[in-house]
Write a structure and sequence with these properties.
- The chain is an alpha+beta fold.
- It folds into 4 domains: 34 residues; 194 residues, Penicillin-binding protein 2a (Domain 2); 342 residues, DD-peptidase/beta-lactamase superfamily (Beta-lactamase, 3-Layer(aba) Sandwich), CATH 3.40.710; 106 residues, Trypsin Inhibitor V, Chain A (2-Layer Sandwich), CATH 3.30.10.
- 34% of the residues lie in helices and 25% in strands.
- Strands 2, 3, 4, 5, 10, 21 and 22 form a 7-stranded mixed beta sheet that branches.
- A hairpin with a 2-residue loop joins strand 21 and strand 22.
- The protein is elongated, with a radius of gyration of 35 Å.
Length: 713
């Protein structure tokens, strides 16, 4: 009995000991997880190192004259490492001496919290030993420059514990102007954590050159998701190259405004207008406007490259083909009739307007845009072998992607011409603008070739690519075909296009114009995607060149109408836009008046520039230049130098209520300062270089929205 009791006692004691041990182990595990977890995780992470990417600064896209079209503005994220050796040495003497004045500077400059609140949070984070305390995010360059002058922040990284991450934000200074052509560059993170780019336009076509080459840095993890860089392990990024386009902002502005006014008055679905330099093929303007649900317009797609049935503007290709083949002459008579409809081969062809006389010359068929006349010419030339017309369309590059420096170009489409029972009919439809789909830029390139005496130029958007101001690659005009047709055929086509304006379908649109224009109207009933022919949607076009006797610019305007609108003709909808563009360009660039000017004598010592106080002070001290400092206490200085005397004055800084003084700054710095206001101010830029004038006086109270014009030297 005693033996049994003794054994049971030992067993019970063992169970109790095991239970106590289990409770202790569980308690210890909970304590490690809940109380000491962050310490052990940080210790574990501190043993892990890896390389992280340092983003290269994306290159800038410029207009031909040097205006910024798309650029990257730096932003700065600032963090505190409260375990930095410089803050911990001598029991935190430096931290406690500087933190109150630092908090005061933060409160005064940013105005979002009181100095007491800042100081309280900093001291609490210091006691916790936070390694990656978020101080401020997305600081502009000017904000960051001011921040670096604060107490503690001006001591350098090791002594202050400050960690700075630099990012960039893509900025389009001119808003909608040519935005679809220039494109956009954005990044977003997929669900699997991978970063994907969303680029369009030139931003996509030249992405590899604009992106540059990223650098890398070795970091050590001090907490989950938090890493500190290891000094001396950085490979500097190679910034992206700059793109200088062929776009002329003045021409782009004229083109876009003329198109937008007509779009708004007609409430059209979308429209595009392109201006090309005749001799070179340079694209000087490319406007694309689509109607948004609220009725406003925006550059939402590149309609200049969208392939559609072109309508009567394709009749130039038909005219060139039949004249080149020799099946017809320009003065040959064609029976049209006066009924407005006639059988042509296996089809019945209808004219939009009845012919004033039963017989027209080939030139008159083109000028009055007779579908019957042009289809009869095509039947005569290609009725026995409909596929032969493809040889001419190929020569005019109507069956291949347009040769322009943009990505995702659509392939033109053409109905089959080698199938029995449909080939002749398809060829006839093609002769006046149906059964094939080409882009407005295809059409413009053909008309530009005729304006250029038969020489077809490659359309292009980029003049040069530069790295640090040095030309990396230069693009010159490129000839695709020296002669798309015989000289006599080109001359006949030019006379026919002039007749369109003087006596044909565009006569009313160009009446009274003081210079000669040549071109062609086009009106096509649309069947495109969800839109069917019976929906009553039309595409109105006008394409041509000016001046007709010595072409300098060619231009195309294409507008897609709302369903069943009365005004849907190329001569009444698209031609007036062409006229407005041509009139303004003629007065600015073609006529080129040169009045006598009296220039005032300029003081060669007069200058105006701005910069950081410390940087300017270093330059002036090194060079031994004297100055009168009237800007005591200001970190941003404007130097007004007149007659050799330099006076420093304080720059009015950006605030929530006042316009900053931007004179003397670079455009990039000025844009960054305006962006800091977050008031949605639209910036218009004139000239290039340093800023010499601004339309809103410094210190003027500001409200949301509005427009600011910056004049550059």
């Amino acid at each position: 009995m005693d033996t049994k009791r003794d054994i049971l006692g030992r067993v019970y004691l063992s169970f109790i000991c095991i239970g106590v041990l289990g409770v202790f182990v569980m308690g210890r595990a909970v304590y490690i997880q809940r109380v000491e977890g962050s310490y052990w995780r940080a210790l574990s992470d501190s043993m892990r190192q890896r390389f992280v990417t340092l983003d290269a600064q994306r290159g800038t896209i410029y207009a031909e004259a040097g205006e910024l079209l798309s650029t990257s503005v730096p932003t700065f994220d600032v963090y505190f490492d409260f375990q930095a050796e410089g803050l911990r040495e001598k029991k935190g003497k430096r931290f406690y001496e500087k933190i109150d004045s630092f908090a005061q500077a933060m409160s005064t400059y940013f105005g979002d919290r009181s100095a007491v609140e800042y100081s309280k949070d900093f001291k609490a984070a210091y006691k916790r030993g936070d390694r990656y305390y978020t101080l401020k995010k997305k600081l502009s360059f000017q904000q960051y420059k001011s921040f670096r002058t604060f107490p503690l922040a001006n001591l350098g990284r090791n002594r202050s514990g400050l960690i700075v991450d630099v990012h960039s934000k893509r900025l389009v200074p001119y808003g909608m102007l040519a935005s679809r052509t220039v494109g956009l560059s954005r990044e977003y993170v997929l669900s699997d954590g991978k970063v994907k780019k969303q680029n369009v336009g030139l931003e996509k076509s030249y992405d590899s050159l604009l992106s540059g080459r990223d650098g890398q840095r070795l970091v050590r993890y001090v907490a989950p998701g938090t890493a500190l860089p290891i000094e001396g392990t950085e490979t500097d990024p190679l910034n992206g190259k700059d793109i200088f386009t062929t776009l002329d902002l003045t021409i782009q502005d004229i083109t876009e405004n003329a198109l937008q006014r007509k779009m708004e008055s007609s409430q059209a679905l979308y429209g595009t207008a392109i201006v090309m330099e005749t001799a070179t093929g340079k694209i000087k303007a490319m406007a694309n406007l689509g109607r948004r649900p609220d009725g406003s317009y925006w550059e939402d797609d590149n309609y200049a490259l969208r392939t559609t049935e072109p309508g009567s503007t394709i009749k130039l290709a038909t005219l060139l083909a039949v004249l080149e083949k020799g099946s017809s002459r320009i003065d040959e008579m064609v029976e049209i009739g006066t009924a407005g409809r006639a059988p042509v081969g296996p089809k019945t062809v209808i004219d939009a307007e009845r012919s004033p006389k039963p017989n027209l010359t080939v030139l008159e068929c083109f000028a009055h845009s007779s579908n019957i006349g042009m289809s009869k010419l095509a039947l005569k030339a290609f009725g026995k072998d409909p596929a032969e017309i493809k040889k001419y369309l190929h020569r005019y590059r109507m069956d291949q992607r347009i040769a322009i420096d943009l990505s995702d170009l659509p392939q033109p489409r053409m109905a089959p011409l080698n199938e029995k029972g449909s080939s002749v009919g398809n060829m006839l439809w093609m002769s006046f603008g149906y059964a094939l789909q080409v882009s407005p830029l295809h059409t413009l390139s053909l008309y530009n070739a005729v304006a250029n005496q038969g020489r077809m130029m490659k359309p292009y958007l980029v003049n040069s690519i530069r790295q640090g101001g040095i030309v990396y690659r230069q693009f010159d005009p490129q000839v695709l075909d020296n002669a798309i047709a015989r000289p006599d055929v080109i001359a006949a086509a030019r006379r026919s296009m002039e007749a369109v304006v003087t006596e044909g379908t565009a006569r009313k649109a160009f009446a009274g114009l003081p210079f000669a224009v040549a071109g062609k109207t086009g009106t096509a009933l649309v069947a495109d995607g969800p839109i069917k022919y019976n929906d009553g949607v039309y595409q109105a076009s006008f394409v041509g060149y000016f001046p007709a006797d010595r072409p300098q610019y060619s231009c195309i305007v294409v507008i897609r109408t709302r369903p069943h609108v009365a005004d849907h003709f190329g001569g009444t909808l698209a031609a007036p836009v062409f006229r407005e563009i041509a009139t303004q360009l003629y007065s600015l660039y073609v006529e080129s008046p040169k009045p006598n000017r009296i220039e005032a004598r300029i003081d060669s010592t007069r200058s105006l520039y701005a910069g950081d106080r410390r940087s300017l002070d270093k330059v002036y001290t090194t060079l031994g230049i004297g100055r009168l400092d009237s800007a005591q206490g200001s970190n941003l200085i404007q130097v007004q130098a007149i007659n050799g005397k330099n006076q420093w004055v304080a720059v009015v800084d950006a605030s929530d209520a006042q316009m900053p003084d931007l004179r003397g700054l670079s455009l990039k710095d000025a844009v960054a300062r305006i962006e800091r206001l977050r008031l949605g101010i639209r910036i218009e830029i004139k000239g290039n270089g340093k800023i010499t004038g601004q339309s809103i006086t410094p210190g003027t109270p500001l409200s949301r929205g509005g427009k600011l014009t910056l004049e550059l030297s």
